[in-house]
Write a structure and sequence with these properties.
46% helix, DNA-binding, homodimer, 16% strand, globular, alpha/beta
Chain lengths: 221, 221
DNA sequence: CCATGTGAACAAATTCACAGCA
DNA sequence: TGCTGTGAATTTGTTCACATGG
């Protein structure tokens, strides 16, 4: 069976929920309990899990620690993954530092920039290197994932460089639609889009209030 | 009509595409041209726009500058929006700096933290203040949006504080499922989820290769 | 003519509702 | 009995295909 990104992202959420339950000493749970505690849908939890097998006991529920371990393994988080960050401005540095001192499954093995002002900077345990060194590092260390945190103008080039160097997956924080290489798993996350979404719905809510209060509102459609 | 988040997020994408075309001197375009240039679907562009009115001329296409302006206005980006950041660690600082010196529609009017080590720090044009000052700033300046960039343990409290202070919308970067207040527009973006998604599909791709090369693979389902 | 705007067809995702098993 | 796992029903989102009109 083919598993969708939506299902997969929810598995990550379930993993966090299970971890939180385990830390609170809960040993057994059910789809209903998870749904109630974390604002999820019980049927959806079961459907999502069903993509990967059977994890529970009918009439009983799920073993928290066991299900957590199974999900972690499914998502590949019981193995370590090396990662480079291209573009060590504000966002790149934040990502590098964050991953370095939260112990996640990801090892940041390099941070790269083309700005001479930034090359040489110490960021946590890392020294920022020149973009020219990128291919060597990726090839030698077999780096799997590249994070793009360069300005919009430089994003396509950074992406092409990563691909040429043999990267397997790319997480792109720049706001450009990349011309993609289909053999490389690519995901774009444009943070401003989320802010834009929020303020749109604020405006929509404001229109509703005006309408309810009986005012004429030319803005509502 | 009710507009979905997916449609709305695509409008943000279209806006970036139009801006890019305009900067390249293109004055007129069509849904097909947009689709071809940016890897989109022409019918979907038209459907998305149709939620808000008619923007094109049949047989001709769209005026780039005009459509850009209309979308910007629709999304509320022709007005300014004030924003506070709660949690001025790596990520919070990066967001604050980023919004401060990309000229977007968002004004960062405050950065807050509870750590005495961080309070008082200069971040761009901002001085980090104590979380205690949060309610005053939100009320006095009528702040619309709060960004949560605190560690997981502190996220629910930061959220409740923002809501109590009268915030209208929240962008949550912490990996917790918040107990939400329904009157506040809330959006969670967990960056690690995207990394987890990428490595899952890498593992899946690796399984496929093994299968193709005729090796026995117990991992594939 | 030609690209928009749109109803209708299709596909995907979610939710329901219950059979089946501990 | 009670919760899982799952087909079937429903809702939501996408794509097609064409009538419409500048």
């Amino acid at each position: 069976m083919d598993v969708s990104c939506l299902t997969l992202n929810r598995l990550s959420v379930y993993l966090r929920c299970l971890r939180s339950l385990r830390e609170r000493g809960v040993e057994r749970t059910s789809s209903q309990e998870l749904a109630r505690n974390f604002g999820l849908n019980a049927a959806q939890i079961r459907k999502d899990l069903a993509c990967f097998g059977e994890f529970g006991i009918r009439g009983v529920g799920y073993d928290v620690a066991q299900l957590e371990a199974r999900l972690r393994s499914l998502l590949g988080l019981d193995r370590r993954h090396s990662l480079v960050v291209v573009g060590m401005g504000n966002l790149g540095r934040a990502v590098a530092r964050h991953l370095a001192h939260s112990r996640s499954a990801f090892d940041v093995v390099g941070g790269f920039d083309s700005d001479p002002e930034i090359i040489g900077l110490e960021v946590g345990p890392l020294t920022v290197r020149s973009t020219g060194e990128l291919p060597g590092v990726i090839a030698e260390q077999g780096v799997e994932v590249g994070v793009i945190a360069v300005p919009a103008e430089a994003a396509q080039e950074a992406y092409d460089d990563l691909v040429a160097a043999g990267i397997r997956a790319v997480l792109n924080f720049s706001p450009v639609r990349l011309r993609r290489h289909p053999e490389v798993r690519t995901r774009t996350v444009d943070l401003r889009i989320y802010l834009e979404e929020l303020v749109f719905f604020l405006a929509a809510a404001r229109d509703d209030e005006e309408a309810e209060s009986g005012l004429h509102s030319a803005a509502s459609r």
